[in-house]
Amino acid sequence: MTAELLDGKALAKTMQEEVSAEIQAFKEATGVTPKLVVVRAGEDPASVSYANAIAKTCEKYGVAFELKALPETASQVEMVALVQSLSADAGVHGIMVQEPMPKGIDAAAVIAALSPAKDVDGVHPLNAGLLMEGKGDFFAPATPSGGMEILRRYNVPIKGKHAVVVGRSNIVGKPMALLLLHEHATVTICHSRTVDLGAVTRQGDILVAAVGKARLITGDMIKPGAVVIDFGVNFEDGKMVGDVDFESAKEVAGMITPVPGGTGPMTNVMLMKNVLTAAKRQVST
Fold it and tell me: I need a surface site. Which of 66, 79, 215, 257 has the fewest CB within 10 A?
């Protein structure tokens, strides 16, 4: 058996057309262009690369973009003041604060300064709390939201299924588990201290890998016919690989996301959807 590919790249292209059309319609109806501001302190290479990628994505979608880059020597007071200023700026609809932040800065204090209404990355404690409850207007992180969109668009049944999530980060693992729970899956969360990981992962009708360890999940750890969502981004000899050993997994799973070309392309699509949603809420209030 060879698993069906869950093609995030193709889905992202389709959704780009949909979301771009929604953004254009919003601009025509309101005269407002949704705007995203990325805040960074220092020049961490990964952060610089990601900000550049977001800028290109915004251009594609017709979203205004601005980068506020502070020096590595920026203080916590300066960062908090900048975030507060942007939060109060009616012309800014979405804000992302990039990590890692310079040594000596309390990231939690900077995040707390964000307006939850502009927290399109879903990292503010209020949004995290509302996600846990599954109630009200909140933003979920874009990466797990993209994984859920893949499941929906490929008509993968979730209700009543056993979903096993490997990874418990606040930006992927935990929110993905909550999003699955809100769709009435029975959810198990695994992590580095899980005893006999394979015994648990083999129970999953839906298996989610989000640990950042290359090829951790092998084919013998997957329930035959399971749907595998791989959020892993790892590099081996310059080649991107997932947390799932794709070659062995595809012979067991029923459906699987490739790396690259699976969950990755969906992240920025969902970020643009969040920016549009934020703009709609702010313009209508």
Answer: 66
147 and 111 both lie in a single domain: no
For residue 276, give the nearest of 48, 42, 15 by alpha carbon. 15
Nearest to 273 by CA among 58, 56, 7, 116: 58
Which letter does DSSP use for residue 217 in this model?
B
Q: What length is written for the chain?
A: 285
pTM above the 0.70 mark?
yes
**3-class secondary-structure state, position 17:** helix
C-alpha to C-alpha distance for 155 and 137, rounded to whole angstroms = 25
A 10 A CB-CB count for 211 gives 23
Same domain as 252, residue 148: yes
Spatial CA neighbour of 165 closest among 211, 233, 221, 224: 211
Residue 20 lies in a domain: no
Q: Name every residue whose Cβ is closer than 8 Å to that of residue 157 and which is 6 or more positions away in sequence.
A: none
CATH code assigned at 79: 3.40.50.10860
Q: Residue 90: give the domain boundaries.
A: 31-116
* Residues 117, 284: Cα–Cα separation, whole Å: 13
Same domain, 87 and 165: no
Residue 269 lies inside a defined structural domain of this protein: no
Per-residue pLDDT of the chain (285 residues; tens, 9 = 90+): 699 999 999 999 999 999 999 999 999 999 999 999 999 999 999 899 999 999 999 999 999 999 999 999 999 999 999 999 999 999 999 999 999 999 999 999 999 999 999 999 999 999 999 999 999 999 999 999 999 999 999 999 999 999 999 999 999 999 999 999 999 999 999 998 999 999 999 999 999 999 999 999 999 999 999 999 999 999 999 999 999 999 999 999 999 999 999 999 999 999 999 999 999 999 975
CATH of the domain at 146: 3.40.50.720
